[in-house]
Amino acid sequence: MKILLFFALVFFSWGNHWVLAQKQAFGADTTLARQWYQQALTLKQKGSADSAQILLEKAAAIYQKNKLWRQQINCSNEITRVLLMQGKYEVALQNALVALHESKIKLKKANLVVADALHVMGIVHYYRGNYDQAMQFYQQALQLKLALLGDTHPNLSSSYNNIGIIYYRKGDYEQALEYYQKDLQVCLKKNGDNRVSIGASYGNIGNVYFDKGDYEQALTYTQLALKFKQEALGEFHPDLANTYNSLGNIYSSKGELDKALEYNFKALHLWLPAFGEAHPNVAAAYNNIGTIYEEKGEYEKAAEYYQKNLQILLQSFDENHPDLASVYHNLGTVYTKQKNFELALQNLQKAWQIRRKSLGEVHDDVAESYFGIGNVYFTQGDYDKALEYYQTNLQILLQSIGQKSPNLAAAYNALGAAYLGKSSYTAALRYYQKAMVANVVTFQDTLLTSNPTLAHQASIYLDGNYLLSSLQAKGIILEMQFAQSHALPDLQQAYRIYCSADTLMARIQQAYTRENDKVAFTHRTRQVYQAALGVSMQLHRVTQEPDYLNKAFYFAERGKAIVLSATLAEAKAKTFAGIADSLLLKDQQLRTQIADYSQQVAQELVQADSAGSNNKLQKYQTLLFTAHRQQENLISKLEKKYPQYYNLKYRPNTIDFTQIQKLLDDKTAMLEYVVGDTLLQIFTLTRQSFKVQSLTIDSTFRRKIAAFRHAILSQDAALYQQTAFSLSKILLPSLLPKSIQQLLIIPDGELTTLPFEALLTQNHKKRANSYLMHQYTISYAYSARLLFERLTQPDENSGKQLLALAPVFADSGTNAMVDTNYSLLVQNSDSTVRKSIVSSVRKNQAESNPNDITRGWLRNGQYVSPLLASIREVESIALRFQQRGNTAKVYLYNQAREEQLKSGEVENYNYLHLATHGFVNESYPELSGLLLAQDSTAQEDGILYMGEIYNLRLKAELVTLSACETGLGKLASGEGIIGLTRAFLYAGARNMVVSFWKVPDESTAELMENFYAALLSGKDKAQALQIAKRKMAKQRKYHPPFYWAPFVLVGK
C-alpha cells in the first residue's frame, strides 16, 4: 500500500520594504492596496484561500494602474499560491507563466520578485507532478537569491525546503535530508515568529526518516513539527492536517491502526472545511484511511476510500501524475486480497507504467509496483512468476534505499515466502535471515542458526511486525524440516526462535497505547504462541525434559487475555503507586470522556445513513481524538514522575503451573483449553499432577459446538443428546482422579460461550443425573494467570451488603423507550435488541404468553417488555440477606436508574444484582449494555453502556447480571470475549454470574432465588449455582438446559 504525504511548503513574499515607500509616492489608493495585501497574507495563513484571492486581485489591479510592477507581480505570485491551495492547478500554471514573463520584461534587473516568480513556477510544476521541471525553477530561484542575499539569509529557507521535497519525491533521501537540514538551520537563525517554518522543516525531516524506515526518528521529528505548528496556528488550522496525516502514517506502519485512523480522520476533518471535497489533500486523507482499513482486513471499506481518492485526483491531475499511480497501486493491492486478480493486475500495471515514466526505473515506488505484481502471482500460487517480480523489487531497493530498511525486510520476507511455497526450505531460511539483518540495526549475522537478541531495549529494530513475520516463518520452516529429518537441532532452534518472538511481541504490545490496537495484535500473537506451544510439546515428547512441558503451559497462557491482564495490572498500579489525587481524578475524567465519545462515535457509525449523522460523527471523532491525546500525555507524565507506577504496570506477569497447584485442594482440577486450527490442547492441573492432552480436530469439532448450542436454544432433544455426549468425550480428560469434585475451566475460542455444565457424561435418553453439573461444580476464568490472582485474594471477611436494581418496565414511567435509545437500538443491525424489536412487533405477543418474555426482548414499537418476575426475584433475595443480618438495598421501577450505579453509593456494597434487559453488539462492543429505567427528563439516557461500566468503582465480591447474553460479546482471538463481563471485572468485580443466551423472565427469577438461598446458607458461589441449576433441572417445565444452563460463574 502506498501512503500519500502532502507537505506544508514554506513560501515567502518579499514586499515589506517597498510597501513603506509607496505610501509617500502614491497616496491613498496604494495604501489601500497595501492593506488588502497584508490582509490577504493573514487570510492565506489562516487557510482562507478564496477570500485571500479576492483581496490580492484587487490589490494587483491598483498596483497595475499605478505601474508598480514589483508590487503587482508580487501579488500575482501570491495569487498563484492561493490557487494552488484551492487545487486549481491549470489556472495556477497560466497565472504563474504570466507573472514570470512580466517579471522578466518589466523588472529590468535581477531582484527578489523575479526569484520568487521562478520559485512559484517550480511549485506549480511540483503540484503537477513534473519534478524535473520543478527542480530547474527551484535551482534558478536559489542561485538568484544566493547572488542577491548571500548564503545565510533567512529567505533561502523556502528554496532549501522545496528542493529537499523534490529529492524526497525522487527517492534520494540523503540529498533530501541535506536540504531539509539547511532549511532548518536557516529557520532557527531567523528573528521573529517563524514557528510555522520550523514546524514544516521538522515535519519534512520526519517524512524522510519515515520513508527510510526509521519510525522512531520520524515520530520524534513529526511530533516536534506538531508542537511548533500548534503554538503558531492553534488547534484548527488546516496546515496542521499535514502533520496529523504524517503521524497517522507512522502509527499505521507501527501497527497501531486504530490510533492511526484517529489521526487520519483528524486530518480529513481539518482539510474538508478548508478546501472542500474535491481537493488533492482531501484525497490524500481518503487514501491513507483506506490503507488502514486494508490493514485491518476491511477490504470493501478500503476500496471505497481508494475510489474516493481516485475520483478527486482524476479531476485535479493529468493521467500520468505520480499520485494517481499510488491510488492505482493501492486499488491493485486490495483487489489482490479480494482475489480479483484481473482487476488487480490492471491497476498495478497502470501504476507501474506511470511511475516508470515520471520517476525512472530506480525508485522505491517503482520497486513497490514490482512487489505488488509479484503478490498477485504469489496469491495465485505461481511462485516462479512471483519470484521474478520480487527479485526485481529487491534489486531496485538495494540501489535506492541501502541495506537497512523495513521495505528491504519486506522484500526478503516475500522471497522467503515464495521459496517456502516451492518447498525450498534452505533458500527460504536464507531470505528470512536476510530480512532480519535488514530490519535490526545492530544485527549482521547471516548464519541461519543466529537470531537477533531482543531481550533489552538497546536492540533496535525498524519494523516489529516484519521482524515477527521473519521469526515466525523461520520457526515454521524448522518445524517442517524436523518432520522430515527428525533432527533434534531443527526443533530446538525453532524453540529458541519462538522464545525470541515472545520477547519481541511483548515489546511491540507494550509500545501500543490503545486497547483496541493491543487486542487486534493478539490475533497475530495467538498464531505464534500456538506454534510455540506445539514445538514445546514435541520437544517434551522427544526429550522427556519437564522444562518443555512448563514452557508449553507458559505459551498457552501468553496466548490468553494478556491485554486484560495488563489493563488490570495498570489499574492496580495506579492504586498503589502513590499518585496524587488530582492526577487520578484527571485520569478518571479522561476515561469517562473517552468511554462517552467512543460510544457516541459507534452510535453515529451505526446511524451513518441518517440525516445529519456525518456532522455528529465528525464532532465526536474530534472530541475522542483530543481526549486520547490528553490521556496519552497524562500517562506519559505518570510513568516519568512515578517510577513505582511504571514498574508495577510493566512488571512481568507470568506464572508457573506449580504456583497454581499449591492453591488447589485435592477436590479441584483446572482445565485449560487451547483451540487451534487442527489441534486441541487440554492442560489438566490438579494438586498432584500436571498433564497435557493433544487431540486432532477438524471443522466437525466446531460444527458440533455450534450444533450443541443450537440444540439447547431450539430444545432439539435428539440433536442435543448427540452433541452433548460427543463433546463431553472430546473435552473431558478421561483420567481425572475420582476425588475431583470441582472444575475450574479456562476456555478458548468457540469454547468461551459453551456451558460445560450441560454436557452429558452418559449417552442415554434419561438424563436425570447425566449432566456434567451433577458430577462437578464448575466455574470459569479468562486465563490461569487471572485465576491465580483471584485464588490468592483473601475471602471476604466482612458482612454481605446487597444492592439490587430491577427497572421492571411495568409502567409507562419506566418502559417507554427514550427516543434516542429506541432509534439507536432499532438501527443497530447486529444487536440482539433489534432482532427482538422486529420479532416483537407482532401484536400483543408479550401479553399473550408471559412465559415467553425474555430479558433481552422489547415488546412492541417503543415499549420495553415488562419483567414482572424480577420484582419477586430482587425482593426475595433482599429478604434473605436481611434475615441473616446483612444489609440489602433495592431499587425498583423508576428508582432503578443509571445514576444509582454511577454514584458513590455503589462502593458500599459487595454484592450487586441487576435484573433487567441486556443486549450485545458484536460489531460495536461499545454499544453493548444494560437497560435501566427510562426517563426522558433525567441527565442519563437509561442505558449502562460497556464503556460506562469500565469506569464504575466497584468493591464487589459478586456481580450478578440477571439479564440476557451478558456473558457474550465480540470474540477476540487470543483475548476472549470483549463484552460486559470484562468491563465489570475491570471495574472491580471479583466474581460474576452472567448468561450465554436470552433467558426467560420466570425461570431466571426462580434460578436466582435458589442461587442466593444456597449462597447465604454457607455454600460457595460455584456450589450455590450448581444447587440452583439442579433444582431447576428436576422440575418438568424447566428440565431442558435452555432454562438453567445459560448462567455461569466467572471467578471463584
UniProtKB/TrEMBL annotation:
Any one Pfam family match given in the protein's UniProt record, by short name: CHAT
UniProt domain CHAT: residue ranges: 726-1052
PROSITE patterns referenced in this protein's UniProt entry, alphabetically: TPR, TPR_REGION
Each TPR repeat, start to end: 115-148, 157-190, 199-232, 241-274, 283-316, 325-358, 367-400, 409-442
Alphabetical list of SMART domains matching this protein: SEL1, TPR
Alphabetized UniProt keyword annotations: TPR repeat
Superkingdom of source: Bacteria
InterPro entries: CHAT_dom (IPR024983), Sel1-like (IPR006597), TPR-like_helical_dom_sf (IPR011990), TPR_rpt (IPR019734)
Name of the featured protein: CHAT domain-containing protein
Lineage, broadest ranks: Bacteria, Pseudomonadati, Bacteroidota, Cytophagia, Cytophagales
